[in-house]
Predict the 3D structure of the following.
Amino acid sequence: MRAAAVQLKFAATVEGNLAKVEAALAQAARRKVDTVLFPECATTGYNRDFAKLSWPEVQAALKRIGALAAKHGVNVLLGSPVFRRGHWQNCLVVFDRRGRVVHCYAKCQLTERDREFFTPGNSVALFKLDGILCTAIICHERRYPELVRLGVMAGARIAFHPNAGLDPLAVSRHKRGGRDGIAVRAFENAVFYVFANSVGPQGDGLWSAGDSKIVAPNSRVLALADNRSETVITADLDLAQATGKYAADSRAHPRFLAADWRRIVKLVCRQAKKNSGLE
């Protein structure tokens, strides 16, 4: 699989962000990628008043992105607020090459800012792209390594991580250079890890560090963006390397936990399926 991570400076409007997504998708398609990951809340931007969101406007943007996925024949993973079951959730919407929504993962570990508007999800992300089982987390959830581990225990071989950094400039600069645990997460699970972040000033004196990256199961960084520019990074993923070995070993030992792990993994798979759609 050839994967791409798109690093964006958010626009002030949904239409402006949609234009950026469209341009980045066209660029990625010219590089013959199979799968493209965009940041958290790529349809709307993250540093905004979510209470003023219009679901019909966001819904129309998602429909347009599905059409673009079909036009270019690529899988697209894109962060967006989604209104479902009477609540707004901070989601990763997954489109296949035909533009169909095949999964919608809702962020379950929320920041204080998230909780002002969003309702937490209630599942672990599990979905297939071109027959390959994948998992995902969103932004702040990097602090909860079990969310990746459970997906890999269920068989995932790629972890996708959309992000929207929002820090004072000094903190944002300190994050540059991979001090974010991502290479460790790829290594400890023996999977590929694709991380797409926003970049640059986000308003109100807050910044995003960029540093989008694609990491191999041995923790080697295959592609790395800077901390200034909008860009599209790509890497070829040799999925034979993504064994998920350490997660599989954890299911078997220590033996006194093995039966419980089998039960938990079944629950993870069942719940992911129940919570997979936009509705």
User: Anything to note?
Assistant: The chain has one domain: 2-274.
